[in-house]
Amino acid sequence: MSVDKETVKKIASLSRIAVTEAEADALVPELNNILGWVEQLGEVDCSKVEPMTAVIPNKLRLRDDVVSDGNVRDKVLANAPVAEHGFFGVPKVIE
Amino acid sequence: MAEIFELGIAGIRTGVAAGDFTAKEVAETFVDRVSAAKSLNAVLVETPEHALAAAEATDKAKAAGEALGKMAGVPIGMKDLFCTEGVVTTAGSLILDGFTPQYESTVSANLFKAGAGMLGKLNMDQFAMGSSNETSAFGNVISPWRRNDGGNTDLAPGGSSGGSAAVVSGRICPAATGTDTGGSIRQPAAFVGITGFKPTYGRCSRWGTIAFASSLDQAGPMAHDVRDCAIMLEAMSGFDPKDSTSLDLPVPEWEAGLKSDLTGKRIGIPKEYRVDNMPPEIDALWQKGIEWLKDAGAKIVDVSLPHTKYALPAYYIIAPAEASSNLARYDGVRYGMRDLPDGAGLQDMYAATRESGFGPEVKRRIMIGTYVLSAGYYDAYYTQAQKVRTLISQDFDKAWESCDLLLTPTAPSAAFGLGEKADDPLAMYLNDVFTVPSSLAGLPAMSVPAGLDGQGLPLGLQVIGKALDEQGVFNAGLALEERAGFVAKPEQWW
């Protein structure tokens, strides 16, 4: 499988990364080079193998369903590029 | 007596406890070393006040006759991947320019609780994606080492923990934190002639460590020698309920358990690690390592890890897939930079912010990750890679039937010049050929400096152990260290 320019633009859009036409052109061979290399995994017979889910057997813990922190609104907002009236600010969204 | 700046963790601890010098003198020494090393570009933010305050606390505790922590009086460098409360943390990326965490990562908090101070935040490959520290948005870190050809080519300190490698080898910080996703502690440690340790996945909490590939990321120490790594890893590790993959186990006393007599231990030599184009010097060093471990009482056995050649391609599917998900959080809304073109809506703002905030290698990996996780390709790429990961892990399990530890080179070459490999992402990825398999299997592994090549540059040997057998890895590392007698240091030119 190899990617063309249209696919690169679609991946960029899914990744929410703006690309210019020139960047998309440059990315086609770069991504194909890497994808061509990882495709050697296809040679491995994995028909009887389960995909790995945890490297070290470790059961996910459950904790009591209670509030364990909070009341840190100002800290949460402290690094926001725009924060007003206790909220994150974003450009107007009109559909 | 050695100058203070030449001391590592154990030396400082002993000297402070004996009253040979105060923690304040130590902190002042290294604060000066840091501010005099700007030409290496290894430190992004200097935090002398933090190091001095911790030193003062240690001196007070000592005067009051209180018990001192494991890291008391030791000022360290902190890789910029660890969130540090009130101190700008960027992960080497513009997208986090100016980000000032409102909380402390568990690893840094553990180290501070043990008495360590912080000298500064260390430069690194952007989001830990790189093997030469050339992907940082804040410029390359320059290795303190130079080739012995009389030239002054700037060399890569390795990556992604390149700043950490540079400051420890240059005796600018006595020790530093690193993180290792596919070799980012071990490969830079090998490039600069220091010791670096990646523990079993789950030993160190990932809470507050900026995420790259969550199923692989592990923090670890980078220090002068095996003992220093053992002390520092004890201070860094421990169960943390805030990390769902944190191991709920007591932290062993690795330093107290250090023992270089390997009688009864079986050391496996994996034949698949003898790769094409490996420099003969590295092969020769590996042979020496085998002799050293035999001399320490170990038995050498040949083993096979048949899926080794598939580790790198599996890694370069799994790590980008996880990264594409983890890095989705940088949206220009909650923290970091925002790029809002005139009249742009929300979606355009996301795309513009991520276009200007991420560097080329980060974008490349996010896009690869997005592609291999996208509908229609998920099974062919991602599921297949996770299956191969299972096979790689099973290879190790099989090897453990006939051996207790593995010995391999750490990296396929000595340090290269900055810029020499920057144009070819695939050539750069191959640097991690010996370190990635153990990362995929979550195993503890360390790099020990073992010799110099013909250019006068350090080479490292890697010891890999069974899950949770950090002690075995430390002990074999110590046996190598005692026999290698590695004392070379870069001459100070900066």
Automatic annotation (TrEMBL), chain A:
InterPro entries recorded: Asp/Glu-ADT_sf_sub_c (IPR036113), GatC (IPR003837)
Cited SUPFAM superfamilies: Glu-tRNAGln amidotransferase C subunit
Catalytic activity: L-glutamyl-tRNA(Gln) + L-glutamine + ATP + H2O = L-glutaminyl-tRNA(Gln) + L-glutamate + ADP + phosphate + H(+); L-aspartyl-tRNA(Asn) + L-glutamine + ATP + H2O = L-asparaginyl-tRNA(Asn) + L-glutamate + ADP + phosphate + 2 H(+)
Top-rank lineage group of the source organism: Bacteria
Gene3D superfamilies recorded: Glu-tRNAGln amidotransferase C subunit, N-terminal domain (1.10.20.60)
Reported function: Allows the formation of correctly charged Asn-tRNA(Asn) or Gln-tRNA(Gln) through the transamidation of misacylated Asp-tRNA(Asn) or Glu-tRNA(Gln) in organisms which lack either or both of asparaginyl-tRNA or glutaminyl-tRNA synthetases. The reaction takes place in the presence of glutamine and ATP through an activated phospho-Asp-tRNA(Asn) or phospho-Glu-tRNA(Gln).
Quaternary structure and interacting proteins, as annotated: Heterotrimer of A, B and C subunits.
Family statement: Belongs to the GatC family.
Name of the protein in its database record: Aspartyl/glutamyl-tRNA(Asn/Gln) amidotransferase subunit C
Species this protein is from: Parasphingorhabdus litoris
Lineage: Bacteria, Pseudomonadati, Pseudomonadota, Alphaproteobacteria, Sphingomonadales
